[in-house]
Specification:
This protein is 46% helix and 15% strand. By secondary structure, the protein is of the alpha+beta class.
């Protein structure tokens, strides 16, 4: 099974001292003192001047810009960050989550940095929280884009999340939606 972002970040932090000679606190001080302010410039500097690979440079820059705290340390914090601009969408998200779990309680919701993954054995759907809507993306293969189903505009999940439905009200969480979810689940988790 693939490691979670939280596990990868923890391993990175735990191995910093042995791999680089400096612990997290030491690197945060070095970054602060380097005088570079933009995230991408810090990543470039870590790669070019400090021999970090891209992923590790990105992880360290992310922690630096998260006030020195792990970015993936808590799924609840990740979810709260996604609702930061769209608090009004939280009740609809919670209702959708409750209805999906009532439909199939073996489904897992895994919060990522920019989206919420919906998985069984493998991810078959995902949710982006946007202004005025929840975008429920699904892996529906070559199903035509028609009716409530449109081309996915989600940020974060793999490209196989090809289709989406914009959920704007509880009434959008209906039989048609669950037929689509069921089709995506059966396609990915036969």
């Amino acid at each position: 099974m693939a490691k979670t972002s939280q596990e990868i970040e923890k391993e990175f932090i735990d191995g910093l001292k042995s791999n680089t000679g400096k612990d997290l606190k030491g690197w945060l001080t070095v970054i602060k003192d380097c005088g570079i302010e933009k995230r991408n410039d810090i990543i470039k500097w870590l790669k070019e001047k400090n021999n970090f690979g891209h992923m590790n440079a990105s992880l360290l820059a992310g922690i630096y810009f998260n006030n020195g705290n792990p970015v993936y340390g808590s799924e609840q914090n990740l979810l709260n960050n996604q609702f930061e601009k769209y608090q009004e969408m939280r009740p609809l998200f919670e209702h959708l989550q409750k209805e999906i779990l009532a439909w199939d309680n073996s489904i897992a919701f895994i919060t990522k940095k920019t989206y919420v993954s919906i998985t069984k054995k493998r991810e078959f759907a995902a949710i982006n929280i946007k202004k005025g809507e929840l975008r429920l993306g699904m892996d529906l293969g070559d199903l035509p884009f028609e009716g409530i189903v449109e081309k996915s505009k989600l940020t974060g999940p793999m490209a196989r999340i090809s289709h989406m439905v914009a959920i704007k009200a509880q009434s959008d969480i209906n039989k048609n939606l669950f037929q689509l979810l069921d089709a995506a689940n059966k396609r990915v988790n036969p």
